[in-house]
Every structure is written in C-alpha cells, then in structure tokens.
C-alpha cells in the first residue's frame, strides 16, 4: 500500500458527520470562551481531546512510492470517521481547505471541518470530498502541446505518471513536486539558479526547478484561468535564459502536459 495509516477509517454520511461536528463545535465554542483566542492550535486540540472520547491527535500518514516517503500529521480524527483541522490564523485561506481536502483523500473520508481559533468568533467551514483516490488513478491525459522529445520532457512525464497511477490525482501539488524532484536527482541537482535579464543585462538569479539545462518544469492544480497562467509563464520566459517550461496541470480528472517555448 502506498498510503500507510495506523487507523482504519470509517467513511460516514454527511448527516452523520454533521451530528458529530455539532458535538465538536459545542466543545470548541466552550474552549474558545474559556481560553480565548491567542493560544497555539495545539492547546485547543489537546483540550478538545480531554473533553471528548475517541479523539486521536496528530495522526501520522505516510505516503510512499519506491524509495520516496513523505509523512503528514492530521490534527484531529474522532471515532475513526471525523476529520477536524485546527488553525490559529487571522482568517481561513484556500490553502487550509486544500490541505484538508488532501487529508480527506488520503484517509478515504468524505467530510471534514476546518476550525480557526484565532478570530474573536470561531471560524469554521465544512470541506467535502465526494471522490476517492482509488477512482482517480487513471485521469484523462491531454498532451497535444507537449514536446515529447524536448529536453527533460520524458524524464518529467515518466516519473510523474507512475505517481498518479499509484496514488491518484487531485492531491496537493507538493506531494507530486517533491517526489518528482527526488527522482530527477534531488534538490541539489534540480533546484538551480536561473539568470533573470533586464533591459541593461543580468538583474539577479532566481531558483527554479529544472528538468534539463535551461528547461524548467512547473506543476499546478488550476481549475480555471489557465490562459492567465500561460501568459505569465511566457513573460517569465522572455526575461530569463530559459529555453522552455514544461508545465503540468493536475486536477482530479485531467493531467494536462504543455511545453511553453
């Protein structure tokens, strides 16, 4: 199994999760009233575990592929079925929702809640994930604009697609970018300075991930605004010494390979 978790989870219905979440939030509001809003999230999680049964904190999930391994720690799992992510942030951000969605896929759960303890009033949002990783291992591939024989192209594709076939699509980008970097030779080789050129010559160096000399690669998870990303990437090409960018956009249903020159 490429995904290792010491607990067998139970995928419950939305109604059952709402009942559990209601109980959790009753405790969360009481804890927020008792402790205030200036503690680290660990304080709130531990207090919740003291007030409820069936709570597991910092649940370890290990994701592997070949010799690559990455470990995640899930904030709160209750009764093997309810996922709750705690934050102590000024506001909830899309990255918080994305992180929670990633955990839902890895744990094969459908429902979670993100809870933010920092505001004066507790912030909280449901995150739902109807799809399962087992159904996301064969996404549609679009590669009409991919230079198959371009420098580094085959290495990027040949290392990325087995990851998706092993784990599934739609996980967070770091979980594809890190092993891809690892299998291409590691950060010391892949993450390299690229000269940025201005009207009067060399301005500075910017570190980018390279698939080959002067050929970068970039992974995204864009649902829309792909044209804007391409426009910005072409502007980057104009002001660096790069010859091309291999761009791969990964969603739960589609993997799009594009070579920009």
Tags for this entry?
261 residues, alpha+beta, 6-stranded mixed sheet, 7 helices, 12 strands
Plain-language structure description:
This protein is an alpha+beta fold. α1 crosses α2 and α4 crosses α5. The mean pLDDT is about 95.
Q: What's the arrangement of secondary structure elements?
A:
Blueprint: E1 3-4, H1 14-35, H2 41-51, E2 55-65, E3 68-78, E4 82-87, H3 94-107, E5 111-116, E6 123-128, E7 140-145, H4 153-167, H5 174-183, H6 187-190, E8 191-198, E9 201-212, E10 215-220, H7 226-238, E11 244-250, E12 254-260
Parallel strand pairs: 4-5, 7-12, 10-11
Antiparallel strand pairs: 1-2, 2-3, 3-4, 5-6, 8-9, 9-10, 11-12
Helix pairs in contact: 1-2, 4-5
Produce a short descriptive summary.
With 261 residues, this protein is an alpha+beta fold. It is 34% helix and 34% strand.
Q: Number of helical runs?
A: 7
Tally of DSSP β-strands: 12
* Largest beta sheet: strand ordering: 1-2-3-4-5-6
Described by the principal axes of the CA atoms, the overall outline is elongated
- Fraction in helix: 25-40%
Secondary-structure element string: EHHEEEHEEEHHHEEEHEE
In terms of structural class, how would the helical and strand content be classed? alpha+beta
Note the quaternary state here.
single chain
Q: Mind describing the biggest β-sheet?
A: 6 strands, mixed
Low-confidence stretches: none
Please state the CA-atom Rg, rounded to the nearest Å. Answer: 21 Å
Determine the N-to-C terminus distance: 39 Å
In percent terms, what proportion of residues is strand? Answer: 25-35%
| Mean pLDDT figure | 96
């Amino acid at each position: 199994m490429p995904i290792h978790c010491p607990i067998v989870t139970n995928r419950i219905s939305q109604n059952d999760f709402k009942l559990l979440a209601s109980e959790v939030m009753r405790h969360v509001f009481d804890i927020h009233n008792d402790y205030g809003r200036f503690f680290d999230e660990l304080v709130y999680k531990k207090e919740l575990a003291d007030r409820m049964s069936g709570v597991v904190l910092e649940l370890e999930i290990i994701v592997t592929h070949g010799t690559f391994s990455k470990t995640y720690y899930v904030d709160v799992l209750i009764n093997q079925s309810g996922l709750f992510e705690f934050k102590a942030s000024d506001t909830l951000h899309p990255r918080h929702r994305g992180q929670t969605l990633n955990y839902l896929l890895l744990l094969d759960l459908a429902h979670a809640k993100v809870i933010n303890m920092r505001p004066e009033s507790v912030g909280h949002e449901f995150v739902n994930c109807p799809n399962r990783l087992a159904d996301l291992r064969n996404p549609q591939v679009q590669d009409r604009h991919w230079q198959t024989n371009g420098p580094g192209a085959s290495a990027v594709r040949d290392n990325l697609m087995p990851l998706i076939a092993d784990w599934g699509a739609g996980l967070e980008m770091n979980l594809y970018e890190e092993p891809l970097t690892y299998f291409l030779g590691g950060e010391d080789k892949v993450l390299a300075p690229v000269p940025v050129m201005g009207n009067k010559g060399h301005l500075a160096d910017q570190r980018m991930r390279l698939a080959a000399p002067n050929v970068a690669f970039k992974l995204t998870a864009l649902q829309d605004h792909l044209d804007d990303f391409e426009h910005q990437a072409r502007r980057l090409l104009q002001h660096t010494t790069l010859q091309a960018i291999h761009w791969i956009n990964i969603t739960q249903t589609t993997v799009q390979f594009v070579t920009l020159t």
